[in-house]
């Protein structure tokens, strides 16, 4: 592991945290042990530094280390991206939910938009891993359940063994999954393996699985952790998707829906 730029050992906490950001940006993933050795401080000091940087929105913590935030936007940052497309996708998805169903909402800005569409309903049970979904449904007249666990600050969603254990005790009529990117070859892309594992478990517990992803994310693979797409799942995107971006998914036999942002019809292919 390289020393901070200039070779001088940072003396204060502020200088050390600046140097940590530089190292994380240049090396991608940086472990707590490596940082502790590089800066000559204890692992607990490094963990406090990482917690401070994450709270400030400058760094994303991972298992045993950290990664630069530029590689993963927070759910709050994503809320303002492709807002019209997400609203169209959420509107279409909400229309699929039948009375008295139990549905599962993944974490993410588009699933949060779906929660907003469903908040007026009173005939559903909604189960989620996402704090943002809970906020949308806090005053709703329907049954809301949360699968707790370890909170990922960037996604505002719960992950880990406790989440998985709770999930194994439930089944769902429909599961709606988010994605940082999706390709026909690799499937749903996320920053960490615990996220993709959780999505796979979610899909196993649901009768119908939907992947909600706006057109800019089609064919996009920003990370190296994936949940493979399975036949029978439905990929839902918006009408800015091009023929070339959707063709690989059609070729794999996936159900594909284009949710209209301006018209009143949908284009669905299986």
TrEMBL record:
<dbReference type="Pfam" id="PF08220">
    <property type="entry name" value="HTH_DeoR"/>
</dbReference>
<dbReference type="GO" id="GO:0003677">
    <property type="term" value="F:DNA binding"/>
</dbReference>
<keyword id="KW-0805">Transcription regulation</keyword>
<keyword id="KW-0238">DNA-binding</keyword>
<dbReference type="InterPro" id="IPR036388">
    <property type="entry name" value="WH-like_DNA-bd_sf"/>
</dbReference>
<feature type="domain" description="HTH deoR-type">
    <location>
        <begin position="13"/>
        <end position="68"/>
    </location>
</feature>
<dbReference type="Pfam" id="PF00455">
    <property type="entry name" value="DeoRC"/>
</dbReference>
<keyword id="KW-0804">Transcription</keyword>
<dbReference type="InterPro" id="IPR050313">
    <property type="entry name" value="Carb_Metab_HTH_regulators"/>
</dbReference>
<dbReference type="InterPro" id="IPR036390">
    <property type="entry name" value="WH_DNA-bd_sf"/>
</dbReference>
<dbReference type="InterPro" id="IPR037171">
    <property type="entry name" value="NagB/RpiA_transferase-like"/>
</dbReference>
<dbReference type="InterPro" id="IPR014036">
    <property type="entry name" value="DeoR-like_C"/>
</dbReference>
<dbReference type="InterPro" id="IPR001034">
    <property type="entry name" value="DeoR_HTH"/>
</dbReference>
<protein>
    <submittedName>
        <fullName>DeoR/GlpR family DNA-binding transcription regulator</fullName>
    </submittedName>
</protein>
């Amino acid at each position: 592991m390289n020393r901070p730029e200039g070779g001088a050992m940072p003396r204060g906490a502020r200088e050390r945290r600046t140097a940590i950001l530089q190292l994380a940006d240049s090396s991608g993933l940086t472990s707590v042990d490596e940082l502790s050795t590089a800066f000559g401080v204890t692992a607990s000091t490094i963990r406090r530094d990482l917690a401070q940087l994450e709270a400030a929105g400058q760094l994303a913590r991972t298992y045993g280390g950290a990664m630069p935030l530029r590689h993963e936007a927070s759910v709050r940052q994503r809320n303002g991206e492709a807002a019209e497309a997400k609203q169209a996708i959420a509107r279409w998805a909400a229309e699929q939910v039948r009375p008295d169903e139990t549905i599962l909402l993944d974490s993410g800005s588009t699933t949060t938009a779906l929660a907003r569409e469903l908040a007026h309903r009173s005939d559903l049970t909604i189960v989620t891993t996402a704090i943002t979904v809970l906020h949308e449904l806090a005053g709703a007249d329907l049954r809301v359940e949360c699968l707790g666990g370890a909170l990922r600050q960037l996604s505002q969603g719960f992950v880990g063994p406790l989440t998985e254990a709770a999930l194994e005790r439930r089944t769902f009529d429909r599961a709606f999954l988010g994605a940082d990117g999706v390709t026909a070859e690799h499937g749903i892309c996320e920053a960490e393996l615990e996220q993709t594992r959780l999505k796979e478990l979610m899909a196993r517990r649901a009768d119908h699985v939907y992947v909600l992803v706006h057109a800019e994310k089609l064919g996009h693979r920003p990370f190296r952790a994936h949940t493979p797409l399975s036949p029978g799942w439905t990929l839902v995107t918006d009408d800015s998707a091009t023929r070339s971006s959707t063709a690989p998914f059609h070729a794999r036999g996936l159900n594909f829906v284009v949710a209209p942002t301006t018209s009143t019809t949908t284009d669905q292919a299986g």
